Amino acid sequence: MDCRTTLTVLAQGVTDVPTSTVDLVYSSSSTPHVYTSSWLKLFATVDDTNCPVTSCKLMDGTCSSTPTANANFYIGANTPWALSAKQNVVDGWVYQTFCIKCLGTKQTGFSKTTPSNLKIRQVRRCSDYMTFASPQTPLTKLLAYSNV
User: Fold this and answer.
1) Where are the domains of the chain?
2) Which end of the chain is more exposed for a tag (fewer CB within 10 A), N or C?
3) Can you give the pTM of this predicted structure?
4) What's the rounded Cα separation, in Å, for the pair 63 and 81?
5) 61 burial level (CB within 10 Å; 0-12, 13-18, 19+)
6) How far apart are CA 80 and CA 41, in angstroms?
7) Out of 15-19, 20-24, 97-101, least confident range
8) Beta-ladder partners of 119
9) Which residue spans within 1-147 are E strands per DSSP?
10) Per-residue pLDDT tens for 53-75?
11) Statement: 3-127 belongs to CATH 3.30.70
């Protein structure tokens, strides 16, 4: 079998496949949000026995290089290469545009890359950025009745 054709990219937004843009709401929990628990939720394989995936990497938005190290959004070092994101950063963090590249080493080697339009961010904790305005004198207006 030619392993270069073993992987296909799953369509985004269908069962268990993450959507292309994720906005995480702040949570005080230190448990990270799991964007995807396994590379098998991003790719389908026709022969994982003879053509196993041996690594998956988080890539930048162009899918050409690894992104700058980011402590807020990261991929596991070992199979199943879960992709996780912090959601307890008070100031939040801006969109990270990325793709995932999975590789295998059988025969001549093979790789497959997700679309490059994947984005994730965490929204700041709004309660830290909103304050109550001082009470204002209520504004009243007298309206005249009209039956027209």
Assistant:
1) 3-127
2) C
3) 0.73
4) 17
5) middle
6) 10
7) 15-19
8) 21, 97
9) 7-9, 21-24, 33-36, 43-45, 53-60, 73-75, 83-85, 93-104, 110-113, 118-122
10) 899 998 888 888 877 777 888 99
11) no
